[in-house]
Amino acid sequence: MPIVLTATLALTVAAAMRTDVRTGAAISPEGEFASAQVTEVWDRFDGTFSFQPPHSELLSEVESLVAEHSMPGWDGADAPPISFATFANAREFVSALPESVPLPELAVDPDDGAISFEWHGGYRKVFSVSIGESGRLACAGLDGTDQWYGAWTFDSEIPALVTESVRRVSV
Questions:
Q1: N or C: which terminus of the chain has fewer CB atoms within 10 Å of its end residue's CB?
Q2: How many CA atoms lie within 13 A of 164 on its CB side?
């Protein structure tokens, strides 16, 4: 509660000072400095900001996917459930994606419970990244007649080839 009270009190004082700033009540150099500071704070409140992480929509989709595929045999056969380690790796992967990367489609591999992220860019343009329990990124891409694939260990940073591949097929 003390933090909320302090913040509320500070905003109330700032609002009162802002009113004084607009009426020209600040005359001394100290008063002008204070009014400039209050104006700067209020100008920042006019801007838009979000408390949600980048790609929060995609994080929600991953959580829904995990909930839907959390039981053994979710495919009507012998598919394993998505493990907590896979879920944690997928969340970390999404959190590491640059904001400029378009949102992928999601899928679950019924053989190992890995989560796949797929970007489609039109006819014969697709890039897929699959991440499972080990944190290994298995990637494959197709751009017209060009094909490429590879695997990397994911360690909190997305390899440059992955983001370049996404951009390549998304154009």
A1: N
A2: 5
Kindly report, residue by residue over 107-156, the tens digit of the pLDDT.
999 999 999 999 999 899 999 999 999 999 999 999 999 999 999 989 88
Q: Which of 12, 38, 43 is nearest to 25 (CA)?
A: 38
Lowest mean pLDDT among 3-12, 84-93, 101-110: 3-12
Instruction: Tell me how crowded residue 162 is: count the other CB atoms within 10 A of its CB.
Output: 23
Q: How deeply is 133 buried, as exposed, middle or buried, from its count of CB atoms within 10 A (0-12, 13-18, 19+)?
A: middle
